[in-house]
Design brief:
The chain is of the alpha/beta class. It folds into 2 domains: 322 residues, Bira Bifunctional Protein, Domain 2 (BirA Bifunctional Protein, domain 2), CATH 3.30.930; 59 residues, no CATH class. The chain is built from 15 helices and 14 strands. The strands form 3 sheets. An 8-stranded mixed beta sheet has the order 1-5-6-11-10-9-7-8, sandwiched between helices. β12, α14 and β13 form a beta-alpha-beta unit. α8 packs antiparallel against α9. It is globular, with a radius of gyration of 26 Å. The two termini are 50 Å apart. The relative contact order is 0.13. The model has no long low-confidence stretch (mean pLDDT 90).
């Protein structure tokens, strides 16, 4: 049977030009977050299946790549079900693994703990522009801080990264799960129906208010759907209305202080608005939630929120936690579409060497190249091709500004 050269559907090969941009972006991300006090950690890509199916991941729990049991544990001789033959799966995000990590290692970590985690995650989703089945997430989380200082820090750190990568004019949209529950309850929905309501409202940017109304009316009564949607009319925006402020004061939401502080610090590079329709699809959010939207992309390029109850599901003891994730693949896609070039950090020199170069002369060429590398420059030694003009054009396209030719005569 012939082997297949294309990658698996939803996965992608990365060519050198994009890899250079990815590496540069990751260096900016790591350096910036380190300056905000975040420490790098790593968790396995494989998680216990019971953790992945703990009803914390919302719709993503339907997209898990499950892993079969191995060896003697896998018995296919009898009729069985998927649940009986799987014991683990590939992680669908980095938040759940981080919560398990913190529950396991909290005694060894400072409090609050500011974590930076970068890694691949996997979702059996429908591939589309900027969305893959394997993709890189870049998460920052603050564990052990119940104050809104954590949310402010996360928003400022994430927007600083985007500004350093050249993005301007984006919008931070912010809401609070406490507000969502209060508004849903006031409209007449039962608490056990809240998550179903939120899943429908989360489609607002895709199907519009009329589409949301239709789905709510199909699932619940038209009267309660009308009351609920009416509560969004005139709410939200960059400036909080008296009605917004009254609702936030009633529920004790920290959104006014978060928005006021970020607005006072951020400058004119981006906006921050209260969006009462923002939901975030994960079931684990308990407080403030946020997303970053860009007109250039036409959707979200990052998001996160507070999830104070998740760690307690591992330990039995609640622990405050809040995180923010950059949509790394979408950011890279936008940079590539812009024709972004990685800033050069030193001269790049190429040595084109003709065949059958005498040994002593070849050693001299390699010594010269090593000296350039040790002084901080880049040096590449290649066999000279027949079409030297095309070879030099390719090297110039890779950023080599000093191209030297060596002949054996």
């Amino acid at each position: 049977m012939a082997m297949t050269k294309k990658p698996v559907t939803g996965m992608k090969d990365i060519l050198p030009d994009e890899m250079a941009v990815r590496s540069y972006a990751l260096s900016v991300i790591r350096e910036t977050y380190a300056r905000f006090g975040f420490s790098s950690i790593e968790t396995p890509a494989v998680e216990h299946i019971e953790n992945l199916l703990s009803k914390q991941g919302g719709e993503n729990e339907k997209l898990i790549f499950k892993i079969l049991k191995r060896g003697e544990k896998l018995d296919l001789s009898q009729p069985t079900t998927e649940d009986r033959v799987t014991d683990s799966g590939l992680r669908y995000d980095l938040t759940l693994p981080l919560s398990r990590y913190y529950a396991c290692h909290a005694a060894e970590l400072p409090s609050p703990f500011k974590a930076l985690q970068i890694g691949n995650v996997f979702r059996a989703d429908r591939p589309q522009r900027g969305r893959y089945r394997q993709f890189t997430q870049c998460d920052i989380d603050i564990l052990g801080d119940p104050s809104c200082f954590a949310e402010i820090d996360l928003i400022l750190a994430t927007t600083t990264v985007l500004r350093k990568l050249g993005f301007r004019g984006f919008t931070v949209r912010i809401n609070d799960r406490v507000l969502l529950r209060e508004v849903a309850g006031s409209a007449g929905f039962r608490p056990e129906d809240f998550e179903k309501v939120f899943i429908i409202v989360d489609k607002m940017d895709k199907i519009g208010a009329d589409g949301v109304r239709k789905e709510l009316e199909e699932a619940f009564s038209g009267e309660v759907a009308d009351r609920y949607l009416e509560s969004f009319r005139g709410a939200g925006g960059e400036t909080l209305s008296d009605r917004d402020l009254a609702l936030m004061e009633k529920t004790g939401s920290p959104l006014p202080l978060i928005m006021e502080t970020v607005s006072a610090v951020k400058g004119d590079d981006f906006g921050i608005i209260y969006d009462p329709t923002l939901v975030r699809g994960m079931g684990y959010y308990t407080g403030p939630i946020f997303e970053i939207s860009m007109d250039e992309y036409g959707g979200s390029v990052g998001g996160g929120g507070r999830y104070d109850e998740m760690i307690g599901k591992f330990t039995g003891q609640a622990a405050p936690a809040v995180g923010f994730s950059i949509g790394f693949e979408r950011i890279i896609m936008l940079l590539m579409e812009r024709g972004f070039k990685v800033p050069e950090t030193g001269q790049k020199t190429a040595f084109l060497v003709e065949k059958k170069m005498p040994g002593d002369r070849l050693a001299e060429i390699y010594r010269e190249a090593m000296a350039i590398r040790e002084s901080g420059g880049t040096a590449d030694i290649s066999l000279m091709k027949k079409n030297r003009k095309f070879q030099k054009e390719q090297l110039a396209g890779q950023g080599y500004t000093d191209i030297r030719e060596f002949f054996n005569n």
